[in-house]
Amino acid sequence: MSGHGHFRGLGRHPARLAGSLGGADGLWRRPARIVDLSLGGARLRTDAEVPAGAVVRLSVESPNRWDPLELPARVAWAHPTEGGSELGLCFEPSPSVIRGLIELLAADGYE
Questions:
Q1: Phi and psi at residue 88, in whole multiples of 5°?
Q2: Planar angle of CA 96, 53, 21, nearest 5 degrees
Q3: Given 17, 33, 67, 89, which residue has the most CB atoms within 10 angstroms?
């Protein structure tokens, strides 16, 4: 359990990864900074205002891949910040998403 009274099945790991967040429809894309990451989701900061429940795609620049890791997700929660939002994402699992996340979390220097 975290200090906020939430139970999380998969522990999050601190991260300092660059990426971008976009709509699942591909109509918008904004820079994002991943704050923490797990196999199930991520916390990030972005200048986009995205409501809870929105379906999005997180693109993560990975130190062990040529191309960014593309992660379909749903916004679990959203908190406005000065100049944007802090978001909690819940990933939509698939074998390729899980494999990519395992590789990313295992890579040296993903922080």
A1: -110, 125
A2: 55
A3: 89
